[in-house]
Amino acid sequence: QGKQKKARKYAVMKRMINLRDQRINEKDRAKAREKKKEDPSAIKEREVPQHPSCLFFQYNTQLGPPYHILVDTNFINFSIKAKLDLVQSMMDCLYAKCIPCITDCVMGEIEKLGQKYRVALRIAKDPRFERLPCMHKGTYADDCLVQRVTQHKCYIVATVDKELKRRIRKIPGVPIMYISRHRYNIERMPDDYGAPRF
């Protein structure tokens, strides 16, 4: 007759006394929250997101040549794999002058990738690229690009990342440039009641 096996107790916490407990002194005790009664005659306020004035139906009037294109890290890498010249391919896609813009956090991401991506770093440091300073902490570029595009709708976003594409599609009036079949393509906004297209 061996010892009985004791079942191990998982996630056992020390029981804490509630701050509203009667055993705590009156001055230290947490006060019960009083529910505010809603006034039926008061005007109810609700926040409605304002659509930017630059949108004419689904068409963004701030977009026009020369196009400013926000470039993502993986877009540069895929362009190198597809043997595409970044600026020339953008001009072939849009039939207009293009200014590729690169943010500090995208630059930081490329630098972090190390020696293997030195060609991408050299392309990113091209004088034809416009450098955009970032004020946020860290080098996570996706959040930065989404925030920048939400505030200023004058950019086209160049990316191959599915998750980033999904997030940007939710923002109205922002086209996405991507690579397929060894050339650049652009996702156009849907025509809305005969709205002009760029």
UniProtKB/TrEMBL annotation:
Gene Ontology CC terms: small-subunit processome
InterPro entries in the record: Fcf1/UTP23, Fcf1_PIN, PIN-like_dom_sf, PIN_dom
GO biological process terms held by the UniProt record: ribosomal small subunit biogenesis; rRNA processing
Lineage: superkingdom: Eukaryota
Stretches for region Disordered: 22-45
Keyword line: Nucleus, Ribosome biogenesis, rRNA processing
SMART domains assigned: PINc
Domain PIN: 67-166
PANTHER family: RRNA-PROCESSING PROTEIN UTP23 HOMOLOG
Function: Part of the small subunit (SSU) processome, first precursor of the small eukaryotic ribosomal subunit. During the assembly of the SSU processome in the nucleolus, many ribosome biogenesis factors, an RNA chaperone and ribosomal proteins associate with the nascent pre-rRNA and work in concert to generate RNA folding, modifications, rearrangements and cleavage as well as targeted degradation of pre-ribosomal RNA by the RNA exosome.
Family of this protein: Belongs to the UTP23/FCF1 family. FCF1 subfamily.
Name of the protein in its database record: rRNA-processing protein FCF1 homolog
Naturally occurring in which organism (per UniProt): Hemiprocne comata
